[in-house]
Amino acid sequence: MLAMDSRSAKYLVIGGGIAGVSCVEEIASLCPDDDILLLTASPAVKSVINWRQVYGALEQFDVEERAGSHLEAAHPNVRVHLGTACRLDAARKYVHVKVVHTDAGEELAYERLCICTGARPKIVADGNPHVLGIRDTDSTQEFQKKLEKARRVVVIGNGGIALELVHEVRGCDVIWAIKDRAIGTSFFDAGAAAFFLPHLVKTAPGSASGAASGPCKRQRYAPGRGSHGSAQAEQRAALGTALGPDWHEGLSLEGAQKELSLRVHVEYGCEVERILSPEEVVALSETPLAFFPGPRPHWGGVGVGCAELWPVYARLTNGRTFGCDLVVSATGVVPNVAAIIARNELALADDGGLRVDEQMQTSVPCVYAAGDACSAAWEPRPHWFQMRLWTQARQMGAHAARSMAAHADGRHAELDLCFDLFTHVTSFFGYKVILLGRFNGQGLATRQELLVRSSGTLEYVKVVLLDGRMAGAVLVGDTDLEETFHNLILNGTDLTPYGEDLLHPDVDIEDYFD
């Protein structure tokens, strides 16, 4: 064991996000007598609070940003070190560190290292003062400040941050450009998108809350057989840690048009081709489109004849150009591992993440990785796949900790139940959302079949069947089906005899499978 001093530790973890902090807390619990060093570029770290097991592999928790000293106070064998990892010397087991806010450098020694450096945002026109990528706490505060003076915002992207941002912003017009044919395809299919779309824009206080709940509608269809197939899920060096659930809570996301609730116009099937300045728009004879009230309250329409001058313009791949005060780039992330891989033989996956086996080990001895920085390279269980979410960041960080502790004692760490079944509990637009298994048919053959139940504004339920057995599910609203579906997926129960009654609103499905 290395001597206990400020620049060495038996366990070194890089990254103060949820994966890194979960890793540190788990090691501290398993190995209370071993020294642990957390290297983070930010004095604030992300901690899991209010964790609870919903059922089986289903879990729910909140994320809180805390000072690193809180972690040290809770675990006497943990030290938090401020700095940025700039190079790994795996042969000597040293990490070269740049001290925050200085040009000074130092070396940290370790016996076992876990890389939890997260991911960095892919920003359209990075460096343009009118383009902002939202990834961490600092960028959300900058967005809040810029939004106060904005009359119109162009939002690029279709992930969780873009969804919540469009839903929460007030006092400005929003042009939302997405490359898909439906909103939120990272999390749900076109059917769920249609359920959410009327709720995308919050109604003003005192106004109607949306369409009344109608009779339950059920559909049964197979992807690729007709026009109603499901949309397949997309395959998917910030200093600060990434945003957590409910990142917008406590922020005033209000634009300059205080009298306006919000107007949204969605441009489907397109991306940003180019960001233009006002001078470039004139030189290229571009014709920016005007924005005006749409056919429904809080929705916008577009048309020719825009005479206003804007600080920045976004030309989309569909040929349309829009002027705005601010472009928000929320187009996803890439693993933040460039500094770590330099001069090391760390194997990378096609998505740029560090390849790890089921022990969270990289290709270099005594070096592990977890969270957004890594890519699962083992053969996954039939109902699990990697998706860069807070849930898996916590699970991977904790599993990496168990593996490091076990390997230090010459043991093997078994995979937890959470790696048997993909699960994610979240919320969109005020609705509870639970994702189970291959909820969008990820990686399944075309012979999959879908059962769908939609009850007006109350709930949306989708089941993915493969050869008569449940392979995944999307539950929106208070369905109380998560426990039953969790078991049906893992047990591989043949559901062929039940047919469409599986989702019949007048049938208590739990009675079938008690």
UniProtKB/TrEMBL annotation:
Gene3D superfamilies per UniProt: 3.30.390.30, FAD/NAD(P)-binding domain
Region (Disordered): 205-233
Limits of the NADH-rubredoxin oxidoreductase C-terminal domain: 428-492
Keyword line: FAD, Flavoprotein, Oxidoreductase
Protein family: Belongs to the class-I pyridine nucleotide-disulfide oxidoreductase family. PYROXD1 subfamily.
Matching PANTHER family: PYRIDINE NUCLEOTIDE-DISULFIDE OXIDOREDUCTASE DOMAIN-CONTAINING (PTHR43429), PYRIDINE NUCLEOTIDE-DISULFIDE OXIDOREDUCTASE DOMAIN-CONTAINING PROTEIN 1 (PTHR43429:SF2)
Name of this chain's protein: Pyridine nucleotide-disulfide oxidoreductase domain-containing protein 1
Species of origin: Petromyzon marinus (Sea lamprey)
